[in-house]
Design a protein that fits this description.
The chain is mainly β. The chain contains two helices and 25 strands. The strands form four sheets. The chain has a ten-stranded antiparallel β-sheet with strand order 10-11-12-13-25-21-20-15-18-17, covered by helices on one side.
């Protein structure tokens, strides 16, 4: 039997934004109608009031186009990051289409950037939901970019990036892992925890400075734990050159938020070509979890594998 969406007749306000709620199997997805494309609400039907996403209606920065707002929730950018391109305003109403198994949110054309973005949500055959990010070249010449999917998470949790070792050569003489560090990142920051198998990044509302770190995750997933619940993003590692010295997972955090980010490889798009990046979202009720390899291997990884 096909899974179907049920659109709420009444709009729900999320952080002051009019939002349509879609029920997909065991999940609730809230899509704002007046900004985007965004997903501002993500919860399980077992805990319908527990939004895993952080909502930040007033946080942002001034740009040459105007005041850009984070808004929170989930969004689609193109990598590599640049200003003002990355911070193009997404403060206009969006078009939402539905059919039996898919909800698609169409962003407005970004003429200055030569792109248009869409986010589609549908059931995944093995559980969870697929979130399909698409960027189309609407310009007149080729452009090179990567899809970059960012989720602002509920505060006071921690992110998990797996960095399992895998020998490149038989004798283990060549490096098999790396991390990318941004200029403002202090590796002695207490929010960062490194183990042999995982990198953990905590969200601290009292933090005085931002931190960002990236890597090539192995295996291809990343997660965020908060208040007994784990949000897991799975994705496919594709061949190609990745942004930011080869990253497919990045985490940014400051006192306001933590962003859990995945990226696809860089591609050159001819006019009217598209690029896609798919995440598989799942929610697990795992109870108390600490940022240690033993806890992740014992309590979370068996649910993901």
């Amino acid at each position: 039997m096909s899974k179907v969406f049920r659109l709420k007749v009444e709009e729900k306000e999320v952080g002051g934004f009019k939002t349509k709620l879609f029920f997909l199997d065991k999940f609730i997805i809230g899509i704002p109608t007046e900004i985007g494309p965004r997903i501002l609400y993500f919860a399980s039907t077992e805990k319908p009031e527990f939004n895993l996403f952080g909502v930040l209606p007033d946080v942002g920065m001034q740009t040459s186009e105007g005041f850009w707002r984070v808004y929170g929730g989930h969004r689609l950018w193109s990598s590599p990051e640049a200003k003002p391109r990355s911070y193009s305003l997404d403060n206009k109403p969006v078009k939402i289409e539905t059919d039996k198994e898919t909800v698609t949110v169409h962003g407005n054309p970004e003429t200055a950037n030569s792109v248009q973005k869409t986010i589609s949500i549908r059931p995944h055959p093995k559980g969870g939901i697929q979130v399909i990010h698409t960027i189309r070249n609407i310009g007149r010449w080729p452009i090179t970019l990567a899809c970059w999917a960012l989720s602002v998470m509920k505060p006071k949790g921690f992110a998990i990036i797996p960095i399992r070792s895998s020998k490149v050569d038989e004798e283990g003489l060549l490096p098999d892992r790396h991390i990318t560090i941004w200029p403002y990142t202090d590796l002695s920051d207490k929010r960062l925890t490194f183990t042999n198998d995982f990198i953990f990044i905590g969200q601290d509302p009292e933090a005085g400075s931002p931190v960002k770190i990236g890597t090539m995750a192995n295996p291809s997933w990343t997660a965020y734990w908060v208040e007994g619940v784990a949000f897991v993003k799975g994705f496919q590692k594709k061949e190609g050159e990745y942004p930011d010295f080869g990253c497919n997972v990045e985490v940014y955090t400051n006192a306001n938020m933590l962003e859990l980010e995945t990226l696809g490889p860089l591609q050159t798009l001819e006019p009217n070509d598209t690029i896609r990046h798919t995440e598989i979202w799942r929610i697990f009720d795992v109870g108390e979890l600490t940022p240690t390899s033993e806890k992740i291997k014992g309590n979370l990884e068996p649910l993901i594998d």
